[in-house]
Amino acid sequence: MDVGLIVEDREDARVWLQAVLIAAFPGIRVDMAASVKEALARLEGPSPAIALVDLGLPDGSGVDILHALRERHPTTLRIVTTIFDGDQHLFPALRAGAQGYVLKDQSRAHLVQMLQAISEGVPALSPSIARRLLGFFAPPATEPAHEALTPREVEVLTLLSKGLSIAGVAEVLKLSRHTVGGYVKEIYRKLGVSTRAEAALEAARRGLVPIEG
Q1: Which residues form the HTH luxR-type domain (predicted)?
Q2: What is the dihedral of CA 61, 66, 67, 68, to 10 degrees?
Q3: Any idea where the domains of the chain sit in the sequence?
Q4: Which residues have a Cβ under 8 Å from the Cβ of 41 and sit 6 or more positions away?
Q5: For residue 195, is pLDDT > 90?
Q6: CA torsion sign, 134 to 135 to 136 to 142?
Q7: For residue 124, what are the β-bridge partners?
């Protein structure tokens, strides 16, 4: 690996992650950015071999950087390094193209080992994140009966899964925003979720809508 990119707003965390990258890949040159703006400016240059991206940045979300990396530099290994382990952060990051998701509360030695394993095709996932993913996609031993979505609710969910807003769904289906909002509330209740990302993933897991690449 020739160049690595660290996107992190805290100086102490940047220094720590730089030491991790150098220990994992001796000889690597490390570039740093402290904001979304700085990171996007650095992406105008050559592709980094690996990018460690924090999610909580002062001028936006690291998810925007993941999108940009996937579009502009598809060969870059995109690893989230964060303190956030909730589904509301994990799933949007994965959908944006993250190939690894590690928590910064791990030891330096452990993180070095995880990054080195990338060269062998092992995804960089903190143990708690791996368990969360397995738990989300693995059905329980006895799958409980689910309240079925109506055809209209499936239609609304499909459009939401494609990234449309409630206003956008209302325009496509020629319904009022209030009506679409009611459908969304029912969809969340029936699927047992609380966010659009969770709804899309749960619907895909049940085969209600396709998973888009």
Answers
A1: 142-207
A2: 100
A3: 3-137, 151-205
A4: 33
A5: no
A6: positive
A7: 100
Q: Does domain 151-205 have CATH number 1.10.10.10?
A: yes
Domain 3-137 belongs in CATH node 3.40.50.2300: yes
Distance (Å, whole) CA 8 – CA 104: 11
Q: Over 80: is that where the pLDDT of 98 sits? A: yes
pLDDT in tens, 127-142: 777 776 766 666 555 4
CA dihedral 138, 144, 145, 150 (to 10 degrees): -40
